[in-house]
Amino acid sequence: MGGLGKSTLAQLVYNDKKVQKHFDLVAWVCVSEEFDMFKLTKTILEAVAPSSTSNIQDPNQLQLQLKEKLMGKKFLLVLDDVWNRNYTECEILSNPFKSGAQGSRIILTTRDVDVASAMRAFEIHHLKELQEEDCWKLFARHAFMHDANTYMHSEFEELGRQIVDKCKGLPLAIKTIGALLRSKALDVSEWDKVLNSDIWSLSNHEEIQILPALRLSYKHLLSHIKQCFAYCSIFPKDYSFKKDELVLLWMAEGLLHETENKTMEEIGSDYFVTLVSRSLFQKSSEDEFNFVMHDLTNDLAKFVSGEFTFRLEVDRRSHRNVNKTRHVSYARNVFENFQKFEALQEATQLRTFFGIRIVNTLFLHN
């Protein structure tokens, strides 16, 4: 299940100073749904030895190089958000890691226990939903501007606990709905509207499952901020972005609503701050100047944008729908395969053609 805090827990382990000192090398790789063994292997190798991979296009050669660079080193590798269940592919990917020193460890986060089995995990930890009081404490920290004890035994606690119960113990849902209610300035009628919203009872018939708490947070955004958020579906999962760069993209698309006595940059900054305050954007754990969207928030952006955005190499879509596409992003490579753009010939309404240099998120410490 998504939103339980698997990546957050892994980050706590990864960032612990004692853990950092214990290993010769630590690395974090965001994998997500696209499991490309060549790209993953190359990403790790380039970080370990940047000069080793510039001309290597052979997967076997990459594996040998990585094996050589890890030889005798005690390393910690975190593979975050893995979806691939293919035992053979997982076995091939892990072959170079066997050259590491005794005591090396690999941490894998996944929503699917079969993935852990395919990676031959020797110990599996199943994260459970938060207990009731932990849910309330997390909610109160995000929903109330002041000490939560001030609101004990009040209407807000009664409504809040009922709302928290609808979040099913998922930290992401609790944090998001708390941030939404914080923006309502302690208005009982607004809290009641959130509690009794029909969105809680909507069934997910779509291929993408959207948490009701995320839908509610989106629903309560101003219309022009909704457009800016939906535009962010152009980013692939785990993509980190800078505030100023995203504001410029919004400006270029004409998505910002002009306001008296404010520059467009200031307006875009206000929109951005709103999305951060609602927990729809969050600071990157690897770079304090970058931001990311949780995978489930990215799913929400893709859901609300419908057929207007398309991510080459990621989204699956029949050619008959391409003529509705307004915004396209693609993975920019040194050696481009231009055949992949043939599907866009019918995209006559295209407004954005955005090349993104995608490297599976990786941060290393020696």
Automatic annotation (TrEMBL):
<dbReference type="InterPro" id="IPR058922">
    <property type="entry name" value="WHD_DRP"/>
</dbReference>
<dbReference type="Pfam" id="PF00931">
    <property type="entry name" value="NB-ARC"/>
</dbReference>
<keyword id="KW-0677">Repeat</keyword>
<keyword id="KW-0611">Plant defense</keyword>
<dbReference type="Pfam" id="PF23559">
    <property type="entry name" value="WHD_DRP"/>
</dbReference>
<dbReference type="GO" id="GO:0043531">
    <property type="term" value="F:ADP binding"/>
</dbReference>
<dbReference type="InterPro" id="IPR002182">
    <property type="entry name" value="NB-ARC"/>
</dbReference>
<dbReference type="InterPro" id="IPR027417">
    <property type="entry name" value="P-loop_NTPase"/>
</dbReference>
<feature type="domain" description="NB-ARC">
    <location>
        <begin position="1"/>
        <end position="147"/>
    </location>
</feature>
<dbReference type="GO" id="GO:0006952">
    <property type="term" value="P:defense response"/>
</dbReference>
<dbReference type="InterPro" id="IPR042197">
    <property type="entry name" value="Apaf_helical"/>
</dbReference>
<dbReference type="InterPro" id="IPR036388">
    <property type="entry name" value="WH-like_DNA-bd_sf"/>
</dbReference>
<protein>
    <submittedName>
        <fullName>Disease resistance RPP13-like protein 1</fullName>
    </submittedName>
</protein>
<feature type="domain" description="Disease resistance protein winged helix">
    <location>
        <begin position="234"/>
        <end position="301"/>
    </location>
</feature>
<dbReference type="InterPro" id="IPR044974">
    <property type="entry name" value="Disease_R_plants"/>
</dbReference>
